[in-house]
Amino acid sequence: MSHLTKDKPKLLARVRRLKGQIEAIERAIEAEKDCGAILQLVASVRGATAGLTQELIEDHLRHHVILVEDETGREQGGAELASVLRTYLK
Fold first, then answer.
1. Which among 51, 52, 53, 76 has a CA at the least distance from the CA of 63?
2. In which element (H, E) is residue 22 found?
3. How many CB atoms within 10 Å of residue 7?
4. Which of 72, 24, 28 is nearest to 44 (CA)?
5. Alpha-carbon torsion angle 77, 80, 85, 87, nearest 10
6. Which domains, from first to last, does the chain contain?
7. CB atoms within 10 A of CB 65
8. Tens digits of per-residue pLDDT, 34-61?
9. Going by C-beta distance under 8 Å and a sequence separation of 6 or more, which residues neighbour residue 26?
């Protein structure tokens, strides 16, 4: 995805933050922290994942549906997005 190249540092920073948050959950479980604190960490990961997902969906929509000039490419981009949304919303 060449269009992701310009946002690559920002996307990688988000992924690295998520990785750190997941590792914090692991450490909290290993340390037998309070379940409320662990739930808060999990909620943070969910929010961060949702933010990353939203950004990627918007980018896909823009570059593979809206800006595509040929109908076949637009249909393919739309089908890809629909497939991901079906999985995401399960």
1. 76
2. helix 8-30
3. 14
4. 24
5. -170
6. 7-88 (1.20.58.1000)
7. 17
8. 999 999 999 999 999 999 999 999 999 9
9. none
